[in-house]
């Protein structure tokens, strides 16, 4: 369907070398977009790029720390040099440090905020002139169900992801005249390397989450592909400033 056709579009996916980011990148690639994978781990970047290329996608990687202003500037300079346009930005880079809020150090607070929220600021700011020059664009922010729910084991993570939702709304209002739509996706419990590590430390966690989720299962990175294509395509041209849960119904439970 032409509404979902991303051929000729260029997409940057931060943290696109694994987990949710790679699942979204694969969805965008399947719809025809050229993908720029951004991450700090060069080996993971290369593996993700090869996986996308095996699908027939145009894909390449930029090794960058998106919390660093100079490295983000280099990223957007390289994209502009290679493609002379940018249509889609997925701000997916993120970390969590699980511990009670009273045990957090200031350095840990800054680490989570920088990766989860400051990176979205730097990359969105870097994307704006390229998107404006291209006649518009789509920015997809990755929040979390902790944007909606209080999570005692993820106070700083939740604060950063709540900030993502509010920042998305502000950008949506500010950049609407430039034909840039900005929306947030709020993943629930997704089966990734990070959540597997959490489950290994918390016996019974897998079953508790599965039992509470109306869909009856954990999500997979592939479950994020469809929402990525929708929010990156013409199908969502009149959708902006929203925050859409993709959690199998977890967040609607009392």
Any overview of this molecule?
By secondary structure, the chain is an alpha/beta fold. It is 45% helix and 15% strand. It has one domain: NAD(P)-binding Rossmann-like Domain (Rossmann fold), CATH 3.40.50.720. The chain contains 8 helices and 7 strands; from the N terminus they run E-H-E-H-E-H-E-H-E-H-E-H-H-H-E. The chain has a 7-stranded parallel sheet, with helices on both faces. Helix 1 packs across helix 8 (225-232) and helix 3 packs parallel to helix 4. The longest helix is centred in the middle third of the chain and has 29 residues, at 106-134. The model has no long low-confidence stretch (mean pLDDT 94).
Chart the SSEs and their pairings:
Layout: E1 10-14, H1 19-30, E2 34-39, H2 42-54, E3 59-63, H3 69-83, E4 88-91, H4 106-134, E5 137-142, H5 155-175, E6 180-187, H6 193-201, H7 205-212, H8 225-232, E7 243-246
List keywords for this structure.
globular, alpha/beta, 15% strand, 45% helix, 254 residues, 8 helices
Kindly summarize this structure in a few lines.
It is built from 8 helices and 7 strands, in the order E-H-E-H-E-H-E-H-E-H-E-H-H-H-E. It is α/β, with parallel strands linked by helices.
């Amino acid at each position: 369907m032409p509404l979902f056709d991303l051929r000729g579009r260029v997409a940057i996916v931060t943290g696109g070398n694994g987990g949710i980011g790679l699942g979204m990148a694969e969805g965008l690639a399947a719809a025809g977009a050229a993908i720029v994978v951004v991450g700090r781990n060069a080996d993971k970047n290369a593996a993700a790029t090869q996986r996308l290329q095996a699908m027939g996608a145009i894909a390449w990687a930029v090794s960058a720390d998106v919390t660093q202003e100079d490295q983000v500037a280099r990223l957007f300079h390289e994209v502009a040099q290679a493609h002379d346009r940018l249509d889609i930005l997925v701000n997916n880079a993120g970390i969590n440090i699980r511990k009670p809020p009273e045990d957090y150090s200031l350095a840990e607070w800054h680490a989570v905020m920088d990766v989860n929220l400051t990176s979205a600021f730097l990359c969105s700011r870097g994307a704006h002139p390229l998107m404006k020059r291209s006649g518009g664009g789509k920015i997809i922010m990755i929040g979390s169900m902790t944007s909606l729910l209080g999570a005692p084991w993820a106070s700083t993570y939740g604060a950063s992801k709540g900030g993502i939702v509010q920042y998305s709304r502000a950008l949506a209002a500010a950049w609407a005249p430039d034909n840039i739509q900005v929306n947030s996706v709020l993943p629930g419990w997704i089966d990734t390397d990070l959540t597997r590590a959490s489950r290994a430390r918390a016996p019974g966690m897998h079953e508790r989450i599965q039992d509470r989720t109306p869909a009856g299962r954990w999500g997979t990175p592939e479950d994020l592909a469809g929402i990525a294509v929708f929010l990156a395509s013409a199908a969502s041209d009149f959708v902006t400033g929203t925050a859409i849960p993709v959690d199998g119904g977890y967040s609607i439970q009392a």
